[in-house]
Amino acid sequence: MSNSKNGISFFENVNRNFDKAAQFTSHPKGLLEQIKGCNSVYSFQFPVRTSRGLEVLRGWRVEHSYHKLPVKGGIRYSENVDEDEVKALAALMTYKCAVVDVPFGGAKGAIKFNPKNYGANDVELITRRYTSELIRKNYIGPGVDVPAPDYGSGPREMAWIADTYATFNPGRIDALACVTGKPVAEGGVRGRTEATGRGIFYGLQEACDNSEDMKALGLTKGLAGKRIVVQGLGNVGYHAAKFCQEGGGVIVALAEYEGAIYNPKGLDLDAVVKHRKETGSILKFPGATDVPNSLEALELDCDILIPAALEEQITQSNAPRIKAKIIGEGANGPTTVDAEEILLKKRVMVIPDMYLNAGGVTVSYFEWLKNLSHVRFGRMDKRFEHSAFDKMLRAVEESTGRSFKEHERVAITKGPDEIDLVNSGLEETMTGAYNQIRDIKKSNPKIPDLRTAAFLNAIEKIATAYMELGIFP
Ligand code: NAD
Question: CA-CA distance, 326 to 60, in Å (whole number)?
Fold first, then answer.
């Protein structure tokens, strides 16, 4: 998981991408330096008595940019994590939030341990102890810093974090807004779990719906029928594959750490997941060919490759053999800068992580809004809208003499539930942001790729925020 595959660290990779975009701006060096660096890095150790005995664990919280508050970003649980990686991920969060107009600065946290080696009680203890370290230094709070899940952590951990924060802040009415990605029963929002994967689907769909761009890649318009390879069957990979399959995409290969499987006619995603649960492995799935070296799956013949597991999976060593026409980055930082140069020469379209996997933080933003407003989305307007549409239908029936069938009436008059509003807000965000990035790229033929366009978009928005604060003229 850690950085530095080719002597260049993950954070350096992010900054090289930043520099590539910054040359298209006329902002003073000082302002660009302020945007690029991490505003605050909190590295700490804490003792914890787990069922394995007394242990001292390392934790981080990196707050990358205070141009907007609170800052926001996930907490990674991994034994391979290091400070450089947390800084890189925190920086990506800043740019990501800017690209999708989520009004937060970026942050990221980590605990260096492998949760799979511990029971639930130990993970709870570690999570609560980590949270109290954040509280101690004011690195968590609804208006300060709002964590979320990342690799190795999930809704369960977020519920423990919220509970610990609320315990240390009795009577604080907005305490639940201190963390997002919580279970719905603990203040979460419907649609958050699948949001990143759904956002990837909306982004890919928007890209594939552009006939001019698809023609340039030698592909037909539309996601339907596109052959897709997905690496990583976790939260992001599974949901991206699921929604793409529902949208007509054909999942031809799936890769997990134990190996990959390939079937050019398509794999039934849920049947593969069931098979893996039953046998403990993705391999030996009926009708599919095994690819024992999981990384080789990235080189299989396909239209779209979605790396959704880890960073630095596409490097200069395998990039020349990649056959996909579109790379949809589900994971953070899966493509190194050197690899991307090779891919661009091969005219591959890389849809960058900082845009494509922003669905999670977008819906986290909706969750934060819900927690601050203390009301479920749709509660105030669902019935009102139902009745307004019903009145409209009756008026149409009276004036035309046409009677709507019952199923038509139900479909047309249904007021929105929380999930409908969340998905609608997510789709609007992802499609709008894609077209912003595409327009920036189109506006200047010297801008080489969508990543540079996305960085440029983010830099301009963050620079404007700093200028509005009066910090830079
Ligand atoms: P996860 O832990 O749910 O899933 C990761 C999956 O990748 C696991 O199933 C794991 O077994 C698999 N994997 C590990 N090593 C592998 C390898 N070498 N080859 C193939 N598969 C391998 O994590 P996630 O939440 O899905 O996150 C995945 C990536 O997406 C990370 O880079 C994360 O930072 C990024 N991301 C996550 C979210 C989110 O909302 N969860 C949002 C944005 C970005």
Answer: 34
